[in-house]
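User: Could you write out the 3D structure of this protein bound to guanosine-5'-monophosphate? I've included everything you need below.
Assistant: Certainly. Input first, then the structure.
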Amino acid sequence: MNFLEEKILKDGIVKSGNVLKVDSFLNHQMDISLIEEIAKEFKRRFGAQPISKVLTIEASGIGIAAFVAKEFGVPMVFAKKSKSINLDGEMFVAEVESFTHKNKNQIVVSKKFLGEGERVLIIDDFLANGCALQGLISIVEAAGAMVVGCGIVIEKGFQYGGRAIRNMGYHVESLAIVDAMDSETGSIVFRNQENT
Ligand code: 5GP
């Protein structure tokens, strides 16, 4: 069991509706030593390839992606959620349905901050049905940049996003993959990733 899985078992709370609450250490209060360790682990997994930018989505990806960008010594850009349809052509846009809030948002990245030929590492806190990741991937590709990989802190392996995005040929690394969880007993079962 890795450091993150231990932390999830200790402090994560399984809610109904397939939601894992990790707000005591990841996406409300943040355990900075843990985030540093997470960033180092992404550097270990993706460090063999050149990366020119880290991309994430607001809000909960930002803190994590900032530490990852520091590890790689590159800028971090976050996609903004925008209700406005009044876009001036200066933005890359994708539509994303929120798993937790069940609403649709446009996400936007300024064309100033993502350009042709960039090598992008996408980072997010969770991977569930993959909408957030697919939106970010489509923005990178619209920019003529390349998705080097997707680093996810917690993947819910019983939802289809991870499989769908790997089947599209993207390199997805998830530091913890939850294969099953039960809100009544609180139990959480992780996928064995010993060889990664
Ligand atoms: P997806 O787009 O893959 O369906 O969902 C990913 C996004 O939804 C993540 O950016 C994350 O913010 C949120 N999310 C999905 N599942 C969970 C969950 O179980 N717990 C929490 N805290 N956030 C989740």
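The helical segments are 3-11, 32-46, 60-72, 131-142, 161-167.
User: Perfect, thank you.
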